[in-house]
Amino acid sequence: MPSLPSIRFCQTACAVLLVLLMQAVSAHATSRIKDLANIEGVRQNQLIGYGLVVGLNGTGDTLNNIPFTRQSLQAMLERMGVNIRGQTLRTGNVAAVMVTGNLPAFGTQGTRMDVTVSALGDAKNLTGGTLLVTPLLGADGNVYAVAQGSLAINGFAAEGAAASITRGVPTVGRIANGAIIEREIEFALNRLPNVRLALRNPDFTTAKRIAAAVNDFLGSKTAEPIDPSTVQLSIPPEFKGNVVALLTEIEQLQVEPDLAAKIIIDERSGIIVMGRDVRVATVAVAQGNLTVTISESANVSQPNAFSNGRTVVTPSTRVGVTEDGKKFALVKDGVSLQQLVDGLNGLGIGPRDLIGILQAIKAAGAIQADIEVM
After folding, report:
1. Cα–Cα dist 345/241, whole Å
2. ∠ CA(211), CA(217), CA(223), 5° rounding?
3. Which one of 115, 146, 181 terminates a domain?
4. Are residues 230 and 354 in the same domain?
5. SS3 at position 310
6. What is the tens place of the pLDDT at every residue in 33-42?
7. Predicted confidence band at 295 (pLDDT cuts at 50, 70, 90)?
8. Which residues contact 89 (CB under 8 A, 6 or more apart)?
9. Are residues 142 and 217 in the same domain?
10. Where are the bilayer-spanning segments (predicted)?
């Protein structure tokens, strides 16, 4: 029977080993193939249509300014047996809209889909409106769905005689399950002799790892990487006519994706995103700001009482220049992302200056990463 100290030693060793294993797992995060790639051919299709929204509380299109709304309203009423040719229309309760939606993959006839309704003319608000029957067309010009229903608006607008307020976008609405699918897109998935996986982030290493994971699971050379964004799967004999079962098993396999070293910069908002594999050679960085301050004031000179002088306004301008310089910060060779961030933060700079520093380090050839400016 082991002694008490040895038992405690074993417990401590097991705890340390468990921590090391958890760190190793977190350092090499894996993802499902389902989250890394799409099945080629299993996709949505975009639909678009033109329609009318009625029932607005005087916030619709101005018919005298928007001729297509007036023409659409006349054509719709004529189809219903109402002739208004030559009549003056002054209603403000109608708005011309564009209706968009995505036809889901394998959407069957009679099922419903969501649509988005956007004002096309000068309508101020679509709150309370109802979309009339609107055919939704695909890229081939065929009608795949028909939309109709009451709009749900997230934004609102209110105004008075001297002030107004607008929150969100009151000229865009959504109709949940507002369209009925009328035509299906034929795609015989179970009859395919092979299936291709399209990687969402193309990469040679990731494509090879996906193929290796599939081949290890099936026990045969079934998957083959064709290019950085495509892995082709040959359907094994046991899955002939049942491709869905094969994809169900494959998409749950865990693969560690390989990411390229990249830095994304959005200069408009000052956002910087750096990948974990960004490395920097030994480089010294210094940063300084030159600030020019200009202030103006008006000096008023008035004559004495009962004199013939006049009041004179003379401008006064003050210009000041200050320069804030930061000391050199040394960034060592091959530092990690955390060390790079800590070193640059040591300069006490903001995101705007950090963008310029990263670009300067890249120009010096001291950073091993691709910088993409959005």
Report:
1. 58
2. 30
3. 181
4. no
5. coil
6. 999 999 988 8
7. low
8. 63, 70, 73, 74
9. no
10. none
Among the listed residues 358, 361, 156, the one whose alpha carbon sits nearest the alpha carbon of residue 274: 358
Tell which of 151, 181, 211 closes a domain: 181
Q: How far apart are the two ends of the chain, measured CA to CA in Å?
A: 67
Is 206 in the same domain as 123?
no
**Rounded mean pLDDT, 142-158:** 88
In whole angstroms, give the CA distance from residue 201 to residue 187: 25
Q: Which has the minimum average pLDDT: 73-87, 150-164, 341-355?
A: 341-355
Q: How many domains would you assign to the chain?
A: 3
Indicate whether 66 and 161 sit together in one domain. yes
Q: What angle do CA 131, 148, 62 make, to 5 degrees?
A: 15
pLDDT at 20: 39
pLDDT in tens, 248-283: 999 999 999 988 888 888 877 778 887 777 777 776
81-100 pLDDT, tens digit per residue, is: 888 777 777 888 999 999 99
CA angle 327, 328, 331 (to 5 degrees): 140
Calculate the alpha carbon distances from 132 to 34, 53, 58, 236 in Å.
Answer: 39, 6, 18, 50
The owner of tokens 């301008």 is 317
Q: Do the Cβ atoms of 143 and 45 come closer than 8 Å?
A: no
69 and 120 inside one domain: yes
- 332 is in which domain, residue-wise? 262-290+323-373
Report the predicted TM-score, pTM, of the whole model to 2 decimal places. 0.67
Condensed to tens digits (0 to 9), the pLDDT of residues 182-223 reads 999 888 888 888 999 999 999 999 999 999 999 999 998 999
Question: What is the DSSP code string of 227-293?
Answer: ETTEEEEEPPGGGTT-HHHHHHHHTT-EE------EEEEETTTTEEEE-TT-EE-SEEE--EEEEEE
Pairing outcome for strands 262-266 and 279-280: unpaired
Question: Given a cut of 60, is residue 291 above it in pLDDT?
Answer: no
Pair of tokens at residue 222: 């079934």
